[in-house]
Backbone:
């Protein structure tokens, strides 16, 4: 029974770790130059229409390029500037919320001893710093998927 609970806790911790890696939204900017040639870049073009394509889901955000400001130009009043970073958040997942809250409760338990299995099959206990990292990851999932 005790090993089963530790195994479940380890699996939950690994799930939180994997969710943290996939939670970051990245993408690229697709735009055409004056000759109609398509370009794909990490930064939006200045003063041009572009599409931001989120690489994980393929979702596309269109821009007409009229509200863009150059990084070197001062902002007029801060209201019409393009955002520094676009972020597409996934829909909230109540199951992930519940699991992350359970993980957080286990991680914060006094005297929590968390055993993990390494890639080579050996096991070891998480140290205090690693437990803190897991708490931070669980907190990020809670922030993303809970109300």
Residues:
């Amino acid at each position: 029974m005790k090993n089963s609970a530790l195994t479940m806790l380890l699996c939950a911790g690994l799930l939180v770790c994997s969710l943290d890696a996939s939670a970051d939204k990245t993408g690229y900017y697709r735009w055409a130059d004056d000759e109609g040639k398509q370009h794909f870049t990490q930064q939006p073009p200045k003063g041009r229409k572009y599409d931001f394509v989120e690489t994980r889901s393929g979702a596309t955000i269109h821009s007409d390029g009229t509200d863009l400001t150059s990084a070197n130009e001062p902002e007029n009043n801060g209201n019409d500037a393009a955002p520094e970073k676009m972020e597409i958040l996934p829909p909230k997942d109540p199951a992930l919320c519940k699991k992350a809250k359970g993980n957080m409760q286990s991680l914060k338990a006094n005297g929590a001893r968390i055993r993990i299995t390494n890639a080579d099959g050996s096991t070891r206990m998480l140290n205090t710093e690693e437990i803190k990292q897991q708490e931070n990851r669980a907190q990020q999932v809670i922030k993303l998927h809970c109300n």
Remarks:
- Residues 20-24, 66-78 have pLDDT under 50 and may be disordered.
- Residues 2-23 form the longest helix (22 residues).
- The beta strands are 27-32, 38-41, 50-54, 60-63, 115-117, 123-125.
